[in-house]
């Protein structure tokens, strides 16, 4: 037995063996047509479980469950303090099952068990506790108004924030549990009910989350989980007339389809989409810090991070040093399964994603890039790609323009602050960016000029539940986290009282 391999818990093996249905009204229900989807372990390519493959008829059933639960007031009618208490209980329940959830995620998504424990589960639990607190802090405003008729009448107006109704939460495969939680908890804090639709590749932790929500005391029907294909179940969910809000995280292409479908019903929507995020390394920065930052920002979760640092712009005075250091660090990374405690680079989520990333590396070569490290799939049974550093790329080349969503860094030099800002912004995306410098006036000059929803200085990637997160331009519409997230699950009602 390999000492570095984490032994799989019995409860994880038992969960994998279960005949998973859709979670509807608190019960597991088979898809009406009986379809199944196989779930694979990306480290081996082997099938480890199967889930129900919902179609449009199933979507009707699941949404009806969420709608009944909403209109019954079983959740929205609770005192805010009771919703808060139950959500805090959910955090405790998740914590009690933390290792089980982390292992399930690593076996299904491929990522390092360290990342599953610390981020997918650990940070997500912090998020639950943070957001639970908003349930008791939903407020409106009172307004003095000047309505002139009838003469002598007096009015007082105020606003109320009311839960929007049934929410569709559509989740990608890169952080399946954490992003499901980002959608679930503010919706519940606001008093909504929800249908969670995980990705076809990574449905397992969402199903377990639904079960644990019941265990925490959330009434049946408030949290429903719909497994199925995006083009069928996802599309039917986004366009369902009983859905009042769609919160989607995924690719820009699919996000636009989802946004159109929501708009057709005048459902509210928020879209967290792709990114092609620049990291600007100025000349005064310590080379080792810049290398460390790019490795963390670019290779975390094998680069399958919407906010990953993928375009590394380095001041020409430090370019060679940083790029050589990056190539050396990338070449020395240990490649292996997520359950291997020593592995630093783990498999991508699927064979399709592995092929897509390798195709981008081939395009880069054909467009004249130099491959300084990696550059191909690893010679292992699963969906591994070597950590890759590219230089000598043209600003207009495909790997600089398009989101790769894999362990590929593209390094380019710049000569001036204006050029760095221009290169950073010359992209269809605007999710995140980082600026690396200790020159205060330079930093304060650059930050307002960057077109991105989040700008980090001297770090890349940290997210906090209290910091709004979302995109400019093709990276999306709306914000997650903080008060902004909570309010996006409410309708604003004006009340005007004559007295
Ligand atoms: P995807 O767009 O292919 O799928 C996302 C989800 O949408 C999945 O659950 C999928 O089943 C569903 N879906 C697919 N087609 C649909 C349709 N027609 N109607 C409704 N739902 C549909 O994205 P992905 O490949 O799972 O994830 C990777 C993408 O997600 C990347 O582009 C990445 O940048 C983005 N992402 C963004 C953020 C962010 O916060 N901005 C976070 C993580 C991932």
From TrEMBL:
Catalytic residues (UniProt): 272
Protein name per UniProt: Aldehyde dehydrogenase family protein
Keyword Oxidoreductase belongs to the record: yes
Cytoplasm as UniProt keyword: no
Family: Belongs to the aldehyde dehydrogenase family.
A Pfam family matched in the record: Aldedh
Ranges for domain Aldehyde dehydrogenase: 34-495
Family matches, as InterPro entries: Ald_DH/histidinol_DH, Ald_DH_C, Ald_DH_CS_CYS, Ald_DH_CS_GLU, Ald_DH_N, Aldehyde_DH_dom
Keyword terms: Oxidoreductase
């Amino acid at each position: 037995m390999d000492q570095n391999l984490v032994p799989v818990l019995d409860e994880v093996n038992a969960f994998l063996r279960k005949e998973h249905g859709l979670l509807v009204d608190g019960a597991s229900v088979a898809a009406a047509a009986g379809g199944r989807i196989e779930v694979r372990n990306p480290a081996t390519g082997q099938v480890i479980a199967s889930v129900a493959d919902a179609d449009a008829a199933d979507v009707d059933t699941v949404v009806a469950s969420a709608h009944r639960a909403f209109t019954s007031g079983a959740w929205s009618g609770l005192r805010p303090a009771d919703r808060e208490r139950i959500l805090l209980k959910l955090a405790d329940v998740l914590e009690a099952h933390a290792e089980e959830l982390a292992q399930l995620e690593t076996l299904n998504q491929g990522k390092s068990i360290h990342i599953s424990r610390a981020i997918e589960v650990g940070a997500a639990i912090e998020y639950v506790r943070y957001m639970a607190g908003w349930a008791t802090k939903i407020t409106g405003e009172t307004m003095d108004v000047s309505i002139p008729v009838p003469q002598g009448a007096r009015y007082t107006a105020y606003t109320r924030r009311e839960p929007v109704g049934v929410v569709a939460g559509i989740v990608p495969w890169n952080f399946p549990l954490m992003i499901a939680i980002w959608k679930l908890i503010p919706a519940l804090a606001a008093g909504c009910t929800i249908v969670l639709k995980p990705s076809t590749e990574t449905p397992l932790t969402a199903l377990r989350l639904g079960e644990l929500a019941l265990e925490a005391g959330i009434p049946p029907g408030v949290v429903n989980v719909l497994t199925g294909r995006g083009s069928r179940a996802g599309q039917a969910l986004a366009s369902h007339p009983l859905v009042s809000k769609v919160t989607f995280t995924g690719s820009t292409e699919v996000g636009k389809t989802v946004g159109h479908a929501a708009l057709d019903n005048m459902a509210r929507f928020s879209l967290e989409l792709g990114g092609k995020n620049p990291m600007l390394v100025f000349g005064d920065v310590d080379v080792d810090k810049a290398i460390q930052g790019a490795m963390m920002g670019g290779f975390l979760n094998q680069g399958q991070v919407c906010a990953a640092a993928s375009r590394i712009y380095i001041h020409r005075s430090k370019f060679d040093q940083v790029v050589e250091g990056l190539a050396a660090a990338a070449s020395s990374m240990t490649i292996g399964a997520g359950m291997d405690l020593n592995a630093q680079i783990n498999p991508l989520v699927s064979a399709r994603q592995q092929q897509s990333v390798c195709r981008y590396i081939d395009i880069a070569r054909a467009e004249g890039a130099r491959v300084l490290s990696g550059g191909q799939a690893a010679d292992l049974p699963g969906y591994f790609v070597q950590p890759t550093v590219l230089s000598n790329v043209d600003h207009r080349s495909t790997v600089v323009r398009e989101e790769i969503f894999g362990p590929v860094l593209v390094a380019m030099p710049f000569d001036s602050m204006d050029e760095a800002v221009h290169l950073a912004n010359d992209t269809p995306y605007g999710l995140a960016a980082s600026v690396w410098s200790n020159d205060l006036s330079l930093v304060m000059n650059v930050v307002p000029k960057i077109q991105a929803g989040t700008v980090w200085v001297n770090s890349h990637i940290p997210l906090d539940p209290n910091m709004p997160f979302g995109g400019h331009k093709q990276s999306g519409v709306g914000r997650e986290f903080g008060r902004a997230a909570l309010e996006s699950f409410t309708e604003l009602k004006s009340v005007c009282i004559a007295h």
